[in-house]
Design the sequence.
């Protein structure tokens, strides 16, 4: 499906089954990905990660440490639209990593998401490397959502930085915020080129399409062609 | 009565010894007396009387609710405990029957055994009325209506039972009235009546109401066997060390395999495991682990228990270690698929076990839904081992992706008459409102909230540079429920 923008693209997400990922990378889907928040108190990261998770009946393991619970609040169930969350709330980042490793080895889960606030010493390169290898071995997408100051190395196969943009125009009320828009920056990736996109999420309702729309920010010449070809290939 | 006294004494002050206390149950025409304290017995209060009548006679009466199910549970446990004296014991609705045939000599004779029983029941805080009879019926009658600790042989049973009232036969009420009208007040009088007449009189009655049959059983003329319940099986794998050791981990695998083999033999799976070490200084320490679904996988046992052993203090070492399955469920081997792939559900169940075992049951939860208008009250959490929750929540309006509980107050820097503040400060950051949607008014739930709870007007607010918050104003001006309304931030939209 081609886009309704001159050089943007539309990625069609499977509504029922299969792994949803954007823009479709060549490597296996089941890798460790970092999602960083561009600014504090921004739920755009959570929304982006939730939009990327596969839609399936299997539960999603959601691990949160105490600092991120205080800083960013809890994920609110009624907004999730039928996704089953297995919540694990721990106090220390060490336990978050342990629970994520246990979850990454379990084939019955749809995905594993962990949230860590700041840069605790236990979350070093070795820990993320172990997590990444475990995710690749089991075939489950693993997301690590990080907020606050994020320093140090990470072995995540893709690192995203997500921030909110001003929302689209509300169709009925110009004074009200409309559908959300995010800025997604892929600043480190293995096997693909990084870039910056404006992302909007069309929630599939009543048989409609559930899709993430990626529009490159201006100045990304070579990437546009790349994605145009990828979109052609995807059909 | 003893049980009530012990439980109540732990919670509040008991009434004075001189005050009669009765435990009441619900009867056909209002509450009736179920049990009476010693002071009540001295004043002549009888079981089965109506509480209002007794209260009219004794104005200082203290009435409490009886706990019949609790009493039955206690009797059941005590009946199993009483197997220390003999292998066959049964709990009845108001007593315990023990078949001590061939067991009395182990305790130094019958009289000695009764004394031992009396002392040990007293140690448990229970008063027991004991009697020993040649038949089940005779022992029952003597325990309730005879002297304390009476022992009756097979030869003189008729003489011993003769002076007891016919009520000792535990006949129904109308049969007792009939016998009383016939002038048969004691068991002896009943036994003297010619059998043919009695048989004709009670030919149509059921077994439990037929005085002749009951008398025959009590006197040993017809058989009356005891039907004792089987003792629950114990699933226990012990290992004894030649000399005290400190590290339990190397022994665990053998124990788990042993226990798994026992469970496999009986086609059971463990839901609750307990590992216990017995230290050389006479102390013991134990840890419990629960599982989400019945399992007899030795490797799974080892992984569950290993995390728990860190907190166990081995002291100077231990020489006995046991792994026990406290709660089991039937578990038959089954194959879900023909293609030999893994069962994903079993994987998740094992994961839940490991997470719960290490982090604690309150940390690992499913979402459950509560019917409520308040956003923070809609979500409840249930521990995963309690089972999964079905159903989804239906909310008509858009809800934020993240929620702060409790909501955090924001400082209004520039208020406008209608709608949310144009500038506000939250967590020491100043935000400038650009667009908003609302209000959505959520009124307090009068059937649940305290009086004086203020209503809430919710707004979805987009600030400069595009973050979307969920603000609400607590109350409105002039609602007479506190001062000026304050603003709170409760959620963040994606």
Sequence:
């Amino acid at each position: 499906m081609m886009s309704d923008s001159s050089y943007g693209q539309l990625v069609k997400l499977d509504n029922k089954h299969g792994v949803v990922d954007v823009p479709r990378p060549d490597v296996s889907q089941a890798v460790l990905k970092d999602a960083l928040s561009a600014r504090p108190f921004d739920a755009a990261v959570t929304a982006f990660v939730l939009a990327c998770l596969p839609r399936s009946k299997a539960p999603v393991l959601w691990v949160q440490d105490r600092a991120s619970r205080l800083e960013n609040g809890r994920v609110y169930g009624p907004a999730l639209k039928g996704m089953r969350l297995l919540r694990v709330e721990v106090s220390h980042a060490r336990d978050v990593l342990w629970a994520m490793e246990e979850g990454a080895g379990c084939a019955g889960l749809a995905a594993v998401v962990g949230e860590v606030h700041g840069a605790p010493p236990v979350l070093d390169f070795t820990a993320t490397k172990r997590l990444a290898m475990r995710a690749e071995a089991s075939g489950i997408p693993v997301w690590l959502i990080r907020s606050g100051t994020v320093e140090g190395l990470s072995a995540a196969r893709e690192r995203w930085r997500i921030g909110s943009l001003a929302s689209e125009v509300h169709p009925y009320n110009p004074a009200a915020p409309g559908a959300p828009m995010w800025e997604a920056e892929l600043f480190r990736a293995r096997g693909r080129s990084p870039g910056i996109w404006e992302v909007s999420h069309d929630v599939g309702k009543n048989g409609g399409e559930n899709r993430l729309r990626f529009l490159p920010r201006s100045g990304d010449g070579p990437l546009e062609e790349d994605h145009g070809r990828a979109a052609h290939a995807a059909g | 009565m003893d049980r009530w006294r012990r439980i109540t004494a732990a919670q509040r002050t008991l009434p004075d010894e001189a005050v009669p206390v009765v435990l009441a149950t619900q009867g056909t025409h209002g509450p009736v007396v179920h049990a009476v304290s010693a002071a009540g017995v001295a004043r002549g209060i009888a079981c089965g009387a109506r509480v209002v009548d007794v209260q009219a006679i004794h104005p200082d009466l203290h009435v409490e609710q009886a706990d019949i199910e609790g009493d039955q549970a206690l009797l059941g446990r005590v009946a199993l405990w009483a197997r220390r004296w003999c292998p066959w014991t049964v709990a009845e609705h108001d007593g315990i029957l023990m078949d001590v045939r061939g067991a009395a000599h182990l305790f130094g004779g019958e009289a000695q055994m009764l004394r031992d029983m009396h002392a040990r029941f007293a140690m448990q805080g229970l008063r027991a009325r004991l009697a020993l009879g040649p038949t089940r019926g005779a022992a029952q009658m003597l325990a309730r209506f005879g002297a304390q600790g009476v022992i009756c042989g097979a030869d003189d049973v008729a003489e011993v039972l003769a002076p007891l009232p016919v009520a000792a036969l535990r006949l129904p009420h109308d049969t007792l009235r009939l016998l009383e009208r016939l002038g048969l007040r004691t068991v002896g009088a009943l036994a003297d009546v010619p059998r043919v007449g009695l048989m004709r009189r009670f030919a149509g009655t059921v077994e439990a109401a037929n005085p002749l049959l009951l008398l025959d059983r009590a006197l040993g003329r017809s058989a009356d066997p005891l039907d004792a319940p089987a003792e629950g099986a114990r699933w226990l794998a012990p290992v004894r060390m030649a000399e005290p050791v400190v590290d339990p981990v190397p022994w665990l695998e053998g124990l788990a395999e042993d226990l798994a083999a026992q469970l496999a033999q009986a086609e059971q799976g463990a839901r609750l495991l307990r590992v216990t070490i017995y230290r050389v200084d006479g102390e013991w320490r134990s840890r419990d682990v629960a599982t989400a679904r019945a399992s007899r996988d030795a490797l799974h046992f080892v992984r569950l228990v290993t995390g728990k052993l860190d907190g166990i203090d081995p002291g100077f070492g231990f020489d006995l270690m046991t792994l026990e399955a406290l709660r089991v469920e039937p578990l038959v081997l089954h194959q879900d698929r023909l293609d030999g792939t893994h069962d994903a559900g079993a994987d998740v169940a094992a994961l839940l076990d490991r997470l719960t075992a290490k982090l604690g049951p309150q940390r690992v939860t499913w979402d459950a839904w509560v019917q409520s208008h308040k956003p923070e009250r809609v979500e409840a959490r249930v521990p995963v081992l309690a089972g999964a929750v079905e159903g989804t929540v239906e909310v008509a309006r858009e809800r934020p992706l993240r929620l702060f509980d409790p909501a955090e107050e924001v400082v209004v820097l520039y208020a406008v008459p209608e709608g949310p503040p144009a500038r506000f400060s939250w967590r020491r950051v100043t935000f400038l409102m650009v667009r908003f949607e609302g209000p959505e008014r959520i009124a307090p739930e009068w059937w649940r909230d305290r009086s004086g709870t203020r209503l809430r007007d919710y707004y979805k607010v987009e600030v400069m540079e595009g973050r979307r918050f969920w603000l609400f104003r607590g109350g409105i001006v002039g609602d007479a429920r506190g001062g000026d309304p304050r603003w709170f931030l409760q959620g963040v939209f994606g």
Notes: Chain B touches chain A through 54 residues (CB under 8 Å). Residues 411 and 425 of chain B are 5 Å apart (CA to CA). Residues 361-396 of chain B form one domain. Chain B is about 30% helix and 30% strand.
